[in-house]
Amino acid sequence: MDVTFKIRRRNPDALGQEKPYWQEFVLADVDPTDRVLEMLHRIKWEQDGSLSLRRSCAHGVCGSDAMRINGVNRLACKILIRDVGEKVQVEPILGLPVIKDLIVDMEPFFDHYKQVMPFFVNDDPVPADGRERLQTQANREQFDDSTKCILCACCTTSCPSFWANGHYVGPAAIVGAHRFIFDTRDQAGKERLDILSEPNGVWRCRTIFNCTPACPRDIEVTKAIGEVKLAIRKGTNVGIIETSAIH
Amino acid sequence: MQIHKHDAIIIGAGGAGLMAALYASKGGADVAVVSKLYPTRSHTGTAQGGIGAALGNLDEDKPIYHTYDTVKGGDYLADQHAAKILAENAVEAVIELEHMGLPFDRTSERRISQRRFGGHTRNFGEELVRRACHAADRTGHMILQTLYQQCIKNEVKFFDEFQVVDMIVVDGVVAGVVAIELGTGEFHIFHGKASFFASGGWGRCWSVTSNAHSLTGDGAAIALRRGVPLQDMEFFQFHPTGIYRMGILITEGVRGEGGVLINSVGERFMERYAPSAKDLASRDVVSRAIYLETRAGRSIKNRGYMHLDVRPQTVNRYFAEEGRDRGDFIDDSTVERKLPDILDFCRTYLGVDPVTEPMPVQPTAHYAMGGIPTNIDAEVVIDAAGTVMAGAYAAGETACVSVHGANRLGTNSLVDLVVFGRRGGMKMAEFVKGADWTPLPKDAGAWIEAEFERIRSGSGRSRPGELRAKMQATMMDNVGVFRSEETLTQGINDLAELRDRFNRDLHIDDKSRVFNTDLMEAWEFGCLLDLADVTARTALERKESRGAHSREDFKKRDDENWLAHSLVYQQGEMNDPSYEAHFDKKVDLSLWEAEKEAGTPEDQQRFRPVERVY
What we know:
The complex is a heterodimer.
Chain A: E1 3-9, E2 21-27, H1 36-47, E3 66-69, E4 72-75, H2 81-84, E5 87-91, E6 98-100, E7 103-104, H3 107-115, H4 137-142, H5 144-147, H6 160-164, H7 170-181, H8 189-196, H9 211-214, H10 221-234
Parallel strand pairs in A: 1-5
Antiparallel strand pairs in A: 1-2, 3-4, 3-5, 6-7
Chain B: E1 2-11, H1 15-26, E2 31-35, E3 51-52, H2 63-73, H3 80-99, E4 114-122, E5 127-133, H4 139-153, E6 157-160, E7 162-170, E8 173-181, E9 186-197, H5 218-225, E10 230-231, E11 236-243, H6 253-256, E12 260-262, H7 270-273, H8 283-295, E13 306-309, H9 312-321, H10 332-338, H11 340-350, E14 359-368, E15 372-373, E16 379-381, E17 388-394, E18 399-400, H12 412-434, H13 446-457, H14 464-478, E19 482-483, H15 485-504, H16 517-541, E20 550-551, H17 559-562, E21 564-572, E22 577-586, H18 590-597
Parallel strand pairs in B: 1-2, 1-9, 2-6, 9-17, 15-18, 19-20
Antiparallel strand pairs in B: 3-5, 4-5, 7-8, 8-9, 10-21, 11-14, 12-13, 13-14, 16-17, 21-22
């Protein structure tokens, strides 16, 4: 089948293309099971090599190719033509400055991530037997969902609160903090909760729920944010997630 | 050109690069990580099934068993001393990863959980052992995230989306690298006492591959152009279970959990090819079996693929036949819990639910056993005698220690990058303390800048995408699982024609500076082309079959003539290179020699090269 792509473009370094504009491309012989990324590649490789996008693994694991496809944040490699139809509109994700075509400046996004202490902290001496720290599988699973995050920015750039205020750390950073706050081996939960209770922390979330369906990894983002809010309210990370609910 | 000065420049921010960055900074070095991707985009993140280490948390296990499996898996081309270091260091490296917070799955004793994987056995091949430490089926993702997080904690300096395109060598000493800042198109020089290549593999030489689009072998190609030989390039692994046509990897962990390969007549055919290990024989063995079944007319719908079946009723039926304990039996929730990403891939891309349907799989180009030759401290060596190139380091897939020999075992890629990234990082920290700065030559970066201008201004008719697709097709057809003089010669001729078009008939559409992916892809194609060429040429010269290198005209392994590593050197002009391969680098057989010295009777020697049977 033929599929028409309408792509939002901009090249600050090419005469007449400095301002954003739309461009249409038509592809023939498209199979419904083709990935949108493959079709963008066909446009780039067969029609216009200047079409610019980021991509790497092409199967939804590296998080490079987040874009707005028919108005919804998606990874181009994880959405098939049969899911988007014969007319496909592709734009850069919203809320981050556009560099060129579908490529946005990711620095503000990673800066927010780095603000929430997204790293394991445990200053106790390691076990005397030289082996691993112990953890039950139930405790391990408390934060399993948030370990799936690939930092693609689909959630943060679908969030109206983030669009309204770019200083808001955003859902991805909160998921990044959640992964450690609810890890029983970690010791910096309180510091992270303090960071997230600041004005641009978790309370900017108005529970709009855009983030959850935007996540290509099916992380229950809004739920994770809710758990962090609850932990701040209760002043503890203990007893927030019912471990008995897991297995 | 802007010049940055750091003790240690690390090229690539996957597992090996980040591990080296952490340990070099801990050792006091001023480190800069230069990467064409944001670190979390690196291909380490796609590794699924696990990282092998003889922790013995579920089954009795020892590093020497892991060493044996690695050497045997490599069809005796692995350096035995290096394999021993790999297996021994794996244990402490995995424990260190846990201490860094890596969320491994847990046993009922609250320890790191382990699963079975192809070729990993207890007591020198006696039975399969649970050795692969896992975090669901996204172990690589967890390793990459954990290491990146620790780098943030340790304030490691990153240059993200800076693509390294050349290396500066002054009188045989490496003085740094040249990179393009993708966002601006500007060239930068990174002046360092040490340069560490952790830039990944080159699976994009082939059309069906599990590898990311960015795996274009930049580091290996750059090194080859600047006088470093590449080792064992003829050995490239095809993973038996890629998603049909797409090549996306389906982890061996599926078979580790009991999944089986089934042909068009409903037969579990691996029982014939590997009576003992069956579906968990080493990857080269399983990939060849799939091709042979296909030739015999037993592929599904005669289309060259097999079914990978992990439906609980199938798995439990075979478990029962094998007399496995009922406690091992699986149900739907086991599959959901242990293989969530695999289920997601199949449901998304195929509309197939592995809990109720088998998955269509075919071999997919997966992993380079060869690469930049190094010693066990990740120092680059440039000849058969092991002469070190001062200031040059490499680890991970781009390097060849060699621990994988002619065929890598599953999980050992993660072990390799963690172990040798770590060792290299430490060694480099020590090196930069004593080393002097090598002054930059006046024309540093000039050649590569001109080369990019040549590509940008080309006015021919050939698009890089078209040339790349042709290269990938000829590599798949002629330099794949099975090779012969005829196919390899065809491949070499096709590549020569493509090189000619690349040099004389290229054009790109995008002439701008900012984030010019058209330009970068064209240059990357040049890297792939060089590596494809040396792969085909060394494969043509190696007249035996060993591990992943399977010659239809030389079907047997020939230790008398070919138990040696290959080293291929570039000669001639940069854009019109010729290559010379030598097969004179000795394989380290020290474990076998120690057995002989100790008077171990021949039939009890574990490390004597014998015929591989699984």
